[in-house]
């Protein structure tokens, strides 16, 4: 096995490991229901502009 193949195999393994961790981290628990996206927050500069303009 060449060094390039070894590096690619390690990167593939790490990618699969991260994908499994992401899937396991999204599982809902009784105290923390799963949410697809967090609540969108207004951009600070946009909020400041609205406050100035009224």
TrEMBL record:
Top-level taxon: Bacteria
The annotated regions of Basic residues compositional bias extend over 43-54
Name the segments for region: Disordered: 27-54
Which segments show compositional bias classed as Basic and acidic residues? 28-42
Q: What is this protein called?
A: Uncharacterized protein
Give the originating organism: Nakamurella leprariae
């Amino acid at each position: 096995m060449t060094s390039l193949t070894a590096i690619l195999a390690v990167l593939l393994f790490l990618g699969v490991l991260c994908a499994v961790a992401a899937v396991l981290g999204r599982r809902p628990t009784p105290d923390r229901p799963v949410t697809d996206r967090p609540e969108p927050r207004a951009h600070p500069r946009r909020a400041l502009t609205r406050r100035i303009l009224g």
